[in-house]
Every structure is written in structure tokens, then in C-alpha cells.
């Protein structure tokens, strides 16, 4: 199955030799000059397409595949029959992605400002940027060169976007400083007021002024309809390369290190700090004011109530070291077995 | 309490006889020619309104109700006093809904294109469609006849909508093919990039091109601010009649069968497949690459980590067969009782 | 660290004496006429800024702080060294907030209607309101005086907003009656159709007409991308002063009392009623048709399956009285200890 040309216009074709080079691999067999025009999964790729295999569970599909070549790791190569054309590389998933990207490049900015956009005269728009219909750019905002600002996006007063940012439809940014290559998917929200208030003697809530910002370092991505509140007194900071999936919630004053990965519907309460390379599974959350060490892993749906050490793996709600949580649930299951039934 | 006429303009009145016919039921007692103008809950319905009862817990309210008639199942009828006017049908909730719908029809499209809409000249708009203010319709998109596209909605390049779709305010669609009667509520997002990336040897993340689409079969509904990512290589597919509540997250390559129901804040990780008629309670989630059988039921807040069989009922996080989960929690509660306190 | 002047224009300065009065406190030491221009956290506040301390854990930072004065409770005052300038008040957090607010007032409405706004001729706009670019206000809507309607907001037909409401960018309201001082943050949705349908004998879903409204009492706040569905037959009601954090889901017919606090990603299923002052931690949820008593507290990630009494504290999924849940998890952890390892 080729990509639907209504959505993915065909780029230039590649030869198999070029594809192998892009993948950082070596071509085994096949015609180095064969032209490939697309990529596809093993069971659907056609004779002008490249596929990949990085899990031996899918070997049967590989054996049947019509793909022009299969990107594969050296240790799996022996499993393919003699005649099978392959591109051998230590990182087949990455290599395959690079071939796919060459065939279907990210659309680049179509420089220009849509006539319906409302742009404050004090705002600065970098060269080569594309500003879509109904975009609003408020006073003193700065848009770097080569940015794509999607339809209806709202860039608040004073917001800064570095070079090559992509802002999806209906996204809104206020009180935000973003580096290069930052991506906001549709409906993402950054910089709105955090959830902070004091209680008066009469029992009413008074909003605490939220006087910080959101700092999005280079290459940060924020998923669709995800929310990143600005800091209350300090800043909310997402470290370089950090990726938030859809519907993630980031409370005020949160800081993450570089390269964190937060899967969909994760929630971080205010003032929690994540180290570098922390990974959180879907629907997990943390209490506020915690320290989560570098490379910690937090399982899906976990509820983290206390600090987590470097490289620790935790799970459950409340979250314990993963091994303990697994043992606890195994124990519970055993204890709950109806009497007289074999194990 | 009649529906607020500021929001629900009165339609034509119905006679009790007409109401009974619509409900697929029989009128017991009352004046068949009596005109009813609205519906309401038992305790609030007035003398020109119809109410319904499908739970014996609410019998006391039924006895006191001023409603012109009560839609009721045969097995509850005997509980009503002799003189009480009733519409007797095996499906009182459905029947009541049909009466309500006849009195308050779904607003139909007011054909026309708002002058502020930005529509690419290559896009096709079906006859009788209503295109609201500030709508953006990009190149080669196709809007079927009789669609309602709400204010600020963005219909991306190449997107296809079948007949009679309703797209809420601020919704965005890209890379999406929708059938007939598809509904997106406000702020819903379909077709944005899925959450997929490879890691380079230097530890950076590289986005994997997301080359699939979103297929929304006939009568699919997507809740407010819910997100449906497009496939990475294959498509993300929601089967006919499937309904997503608000803030639901659907990862790339997910497929559901017909008539699935996903309550608010559910999350499905990538490449998981649901059979027909699967029901998932609020805030539940599944890991990726799972197979969930037809008519499986997944309790609220469950975390599904492995395949679920046809008609299985599971709950807990991690999710086990519901009976085991209930027993486990009962056991745990018993074990945790402080010593010396009676059961 | 002063607040970034790109985002927080400096207001008028205050003298220390004025600050103390605003905080409802007394100045200890220092020059009553000293002018302060901002606020900041203990470790970052400069010599013209005020900070606060309400947790003895941060005493070391207080000792080192450069702040002009520290807002502090009487019982902590003795911990500060003799010469330290302080503003002493029983409610340091509230007092500090009032100083911060005086220095950085909430931006007031800049009266006027942006020329791009689309406003139905039957809608009424109160004096002094600010209507942003691309706002849509539909037929018969009423906007109170002094409201700020952010860019792209959609105010549906018949919607009523009281005096001084603030509606964020991309928010949408339909079928909603709001009191004074109601705040919707960006992307919030109120009044859309609830999740209700009947099943036909053929197994299809038929939407139940959703004929209620959303009532937002005075000073209610709805977080970014949060959703409040309208009632099906009765109304969905949020009591005065209730605050929803981001991405919260409120099902149809829910009612809350005054001053409830729902942290991010909470979900309330349909027809559940909360008393006054109920607090729910992040990612917690309730089943439908429950009664939650005044001042009940529901821990983060809890799943409430049955009614909760006045002032009860519950946690876990399913939620039990917090003490039982804590004991159960402690018991489980003990039982799961590997044999032979000391406790």
C-alpha cells in the first residue's frame, strides 16, 4: 500500500543504493539502480517500496513480502532466504525512517502571510515563514525564519519562536519563549495561567498571579490538545528534544531535562522536576514538588507520590519500584484464588 | 421544566397518539388527541410534556409526576396507579428519545457559505451544506451534501467528508476520510501526526514519517477535544457507529470494529485493535499492539496490558477478569483489617 | 528574578508600608518608605522585591534571600535573624498574592470590538467589553459589561455571560448561562452535547436529545481544553467559585456546590452531584449518579464507585476511606516481601 497521494504527494524516487546510504546500511543483493518510490509495512509493500523488520515475530510476513528491499539488523539477516534483497544496518527502524523521510519530506514553509491574518505592527516575522489564514500575532511577538504557523493559531504578545518552528491549527501560545524547531500540534496550549490560588478568610479563592513563563527548548514537541501552564514565579521549562504526546498536562513550574518522553494523557503536577531522558507511560501522573531522576521510567497509569531515583523503574498507584509492584500484584492474585482451586 | 427556548426552539407539537406511535408503543388511557409540546424528567415535566421511567427506583417520582404521559416498559406498568396515562413499549428509553427528537429536531443545515470562510478553489462543497464563519477548507477537500461545518473548523487538504456530517467549532481534520453522518464535537482533532520516533546514535529523537490516514466510518462520533492520530504506515480506523466521548486519545494504527463505545478520557495506545461492540469505561486505557475481542467490556480506570477475549469483562490496573479483580480487592480489604476489630 | 517585562508590564511600585497593608500584615524592621517593584521566590528575589515563606523547609533560602521583605506567619518569624525585614501576617500566601496582584494587575478590558469579529445583530454586548479578532457571537447572545472575549472564541446562540467574564482564545460556549466573573481558559468547551444514546433493536446507537444547559455560577473557572457537557434533561451546574483545572471532563447533569476544586484531568461521569467545597486530586474520577458530600476529599487517581459522605477522605481505585486504602497497600507490600528478607 503506497501512501495516499491525496495526503502524501510523491517526492523524488530513490535508487536502492541511495536508500541504503540514507539508512546507513549496506545493500545485500538486488539491483542497486532499482528505483523505489515509497515505503510500506511488510505485508503491504509493493515491488517499488521498501519495508523493514526489527522483530523476529514478523519473520513470516518478511518471507512473503513483495517489498523491493527489507531494512534489517545484521543479527536477523540470516533468517531471510538467500535471494531476499536487504539493507543491513544496526538501526533498521531509524534507517527505514530516513528512507521514508527522503521519499516524503516534511512540507516546507510556503513563504507568505495569508491576507486574513491579523498581525500587530510591532510583531516581527522571520524570512521565509508561512502564516496561515486567521492567524493572530500579537504585539511584540517574534517569529523566527522558516516557521509554519497553521490556520487559526494565536501567538500572544511578546511570544518568541525560534527558527523553523511548526505551530498546528488552533494552537495558542502566550508567555512562551520557544527555541528552534519546536512543534506544537493542533489545539496545543502553552503559557496559560497555572492553577494556583489562595483561600481568603471568607473561604473564597483568590488567583495567585502567575508571573512566570514557558520555556520550550530546541526541538520540543507538544501533542494535540496538550497543555503547558506557565510558571507562577519561576518558569515552566521543557528541556531540548522533550516530546509530549496528546492531552498531556504540565502544571506550573515543572521542569524537565533533555529528551524526556511523556505519552498521552500524562499529568505532571506543579513544581515537579524531571531529569534527562525520563520516560512516562500513558495516563501516568506525579504529585507536585517531586524530583524524578535522569532516565527514570514510570509505567503507564502509575501514580508517583514521592521522588524517583536515577534510572529507577516504578509502577502502580501509588508507584513503587516496578519489581515490588509486580510481586505485590502476583501475591494478591494468589491470595485471592478461591480455596480448593489449583494454582 | 420545558427546555429553555433560548437554546431549544419549540418544534411542532405532537398528539399523544403520535407520540405513542413514534415510541413504538401503545397509549394506555388519556386523550389520544392531547397535544404535547415537550419532554422532561418525572419530577419536572409539566402537563403538556412526556416523561419516562425505566428504573423502579424512580417509581415515587412517577407517582407524583405531572407529565401528560409516562413512557414505560410493560413490566413496570402494573406499578403505576390505574388512572395514570402511559405509553407502553419494550424500549422506553429509545421510545422516549424518539419523542424528544420529534419535538426538538436536530437543526438542519442552513445552506450557504459564510463570507468569511476561506475555501480553496479546488475544494468541492456538496449541495445544501452550511459552512460557518472563519472555516478553512484546504485544497482538494471534498465536503458531502448537507454537512454543517461549524465556526473556525479547519478541513485539511484532501480530506473527505460524506453526506450529512457535522463538524463542531474549532475542530480540525487532516489526512482523514469520513463516511456519512460523522460527527466531530468542538475541538476534536483527527489526522494529526502520531507519536512515533526513532533514536539516533547521538540520542536525539527523529520523527518517523506518519504516512497513514484516519478512516472514520459512517456515523462515527468524536467527542469534544478528543484526538485521533493518523496511522504511521497503515490507517487508523474507527468502525461504523463507534462513539468517542470527550478527551479520548486514539493512537496511530488503532482499529475499532463497529459500534464501540469509549467513555471520556479513555486512551488507546498505538496499533491496538478492538472488535465490534467493545465498551470501555472512563479513564481506562490499553497498551499498544493488543487485540480486544468483540463485545469485551473494560471497566473504568482499567489498564489493559494484554489481549482480551470475546465478551470478556476486565477491570483493574493491571486489568484482570473482573471477577478476579473484585475478589482480589475484597481479599485485600479483609487482610488489611486491623486485628481485633470485628469483620 | 523580576517578571519578564515582555509579558508582565511593570505596574506602579508600592512602598513596603503599602505592601504590608495589602497583605493584612505588619512590617517588622526595614524602611517603610522603600519602594518595591516586584515579587519573586526566596532564592531569586532582588532588593526591590518581596518574597514569602510559609514552610519551614525553605528557611535556608529565606536566610540567604536578597528580598526587600519576606511575608511570613507569626509562628515562623522567630526563625528569621534579627535584622531581617518581614511582613508578618497570619496568611502569608494570600497576603503575598495580594502584593503581587497590586504590582501586576489583571489586564483590564480594552473596550472595543475587533473589526474582524462576526457578531449577530441580535446579540447584545455590554459596555466596556473587549471583543478580540475572529470572535463569533451568535444570535441573541448577551455579553455582560467589562468582559474580555479572546481571539477566536465562539459564543453560541442564546449564551449569556455576566459582568467581567474572561473567555480565552479558542474557547467555545453553547447552551451556557454564566454569572459574573466567570473565566474560561483557552480551548475550554462548555455546553456541547452530552454522551447519551439509546440502542435500537438493530443495535444502532441513537443520540438522546440533550435538552439541558450549562449553568456556570459566579466566579467559576474552567481550565484549558476542559469540557463541560450540557445537561440531557436537567442542567449541568458548577457552583459559585468552583475551579476546574485543565483537561477536566464534566458529564451531563453533573452538579457541584460552591467552591469545589477539581485538579487536572479529573472526570465526573453523568448525573453525579458534588456538595460544597469538594476537592478532587488530579486524574481522579467518579462513576455516574453518585452523591459526594460537602468538603469530601478525593485523592489523586482515585476511582469513586459509590457515594462519599460529608468531609470523608477517600483514595484508591476503587476508592475506599483513605485510611483503609493506605493500610491495604501497606499490608500488600508486607505480604509481597520476598521470604527471608528483613522487613
From TrEMBL, chains A, B, C:
Keyword Translocase in annotation: no
Enzyme class: transferase
Keywords from the UniProt entry: Acyltransferase, Lipid A biosynthesis, Lipid biosynthesis, Lipid metabolism, Repeat, Transferase
Gene it is expressed from: lpxD
NCBIfam families per record: lipid_A_lpxD, PRK00892.1
Similarity comment: family membership: Belongs to the transferase hexapeptide repeat family. LpxD subfamily.
Residue ranges constituting the UDP-3-O-[3-hydroxymyristoyl] glucosamine N-acyltransferase non-repeat region domain according to the UniProt record: 34-101
Function (record text): Catalyzes the N-acylation of UDP-3-O-acylglucosamine using 3-hydroxyacyl-ACP as the acyl donor. Is involved in the biosynthesis of lipid A, a phosphorylated glycolipid that anchors the lipopolysaccharide to the outer membrane of the cell.
Highest taxon listed in the record's lineage: Bacteria
Quaternary data: Homotrimer.
Organism the protein comes from: Falsiroseomonas oleicola
Reactions catalysed according to its record: a UDP-3-O-[(3R)-3-hydroxyacyl]-alpha-D-glucosamine + a (3R)-hydroxyacyl-[ACP] = a UDP-2-N,3-O-bis[(3R)-3-hydroxyacyl]-alpha-D-glucosamine + holo-[ACP] + H(+)
Protein name: UDP-3-O-acylglucosamine N-acyltransferase
Pathways involved: Bacterial outer membrane biogenesis; LPS lipid A biosynthesis
Enzyme Commission number(s): 2.3.1.191
GO molecular function: UDP-3-O-[(3R)-3-hydroxyacyl]-glucosamine N-acyltransferase activity
PANTHER family tied to this protein: UDP-3-O-ACYLGLUCOSAMINE N-ACYLTRANSFERASE, UDP-3-O-ACYLGLUCOSAMINE N-ACYLTRANSFERASE 1, MITOCHONDRIAL-RELATED
Active site: 252 (proton acceptor)
Amino acid at each position: 500500500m503506497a501512501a495516499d497521494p491525496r495526503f502524501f504527494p510523491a517526492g523524488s524516487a530513490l535508487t536502492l543504493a541511495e536508500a541504503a546510504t540514507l539508512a546507513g546500511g549496506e545493500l545485500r543483493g538486488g539491483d542497486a539502480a532499482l528505483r523505489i518510490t515509497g515505503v510500506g509495512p511488510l505485508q503491504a509493500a509493493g515491488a517499488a517500496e521498501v519495508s523493514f523488520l526489527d522483530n523476529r515475530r514478523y519473520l513470516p510476513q518478511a518471507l512473503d513480502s513483495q517489498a523491493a528491499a527489507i531494512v534489517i539488523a545484521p543479527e536477523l539477516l540470516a533468517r531471510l532466504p538467500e535471494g531476499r534483497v536487504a539493507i543491513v544496518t544496526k538501526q533498521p527502524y531509524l534507517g527505514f525512517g530516513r528512507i521514508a523521510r527522503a521519499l516524503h519530506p516534511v512540507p516546507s514553509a510556503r513563504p507568505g502571510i495569508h491576507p486574513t491574518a491579523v498581525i500587530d505592527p510591532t510583531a516581527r516575522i522571520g524570512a521565509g515563514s508561512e502564516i496561515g489564514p486567521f492567524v493572530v500575532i500579537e504585539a511584540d511577538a517574534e517569529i523566527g525564519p522558516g516557521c509554519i504557523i497553521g490556520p487559526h493559531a494565536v501567538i500572544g504578545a511578546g511570544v518568541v519562536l525560534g527558527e523553523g518552528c511548526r505551530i498546528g491549527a488552533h494552537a495558542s501560545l502566550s508567555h512562551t519563549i520557544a527555541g528552534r524547531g519546536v512543534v506544537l500540534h493542533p489545539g496545543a496550549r502553552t503559557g496559560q495561567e497555572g492553577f494556583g490560588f489562595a483561600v481568603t478568610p471568607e473561604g473564597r479563592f483568590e488567583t495567585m498571579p502567575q508571573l512566570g513563563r514557558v520555556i520550550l527548548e530546541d526541538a520540543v514537541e507538544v501533542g494535540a490538545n496538550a497543555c503547558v501552564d506557565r510558571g507562577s514565579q519561576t518558569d515552566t521549562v521543557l528541556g531540548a528534544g522533550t516530546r509530549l504526546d496528546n492531552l498531556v498536562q504540565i502544571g506550573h513550574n515543572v521542569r524537565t531535562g533533555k529528551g524526556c518522553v511523556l505519552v498521552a494523557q500524562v499529568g505532571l503536577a506543579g513544581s515537579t522536576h524531571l531529569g534527562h531522558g525520563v520516560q512516562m507511560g500513558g495516563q501516568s501522573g506525579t504529585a507536585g514538588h517531586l524530583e524524578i531522576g535522569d532516565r527514570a521510567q514510570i509505567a503507564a497509569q502509575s501514580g508517583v507520590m514521592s521522588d524517583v531515583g536515577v534510572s529507577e523503574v516504578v509502577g502502580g498507584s501509588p508507584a513503587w519500584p516496578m519489581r515490588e509492584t509486580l510481586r505485590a500484584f502476583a501475591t494478591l492474585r494468589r491470595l485471592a484464588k478461591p480455596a480448593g482451586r489449583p494454582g
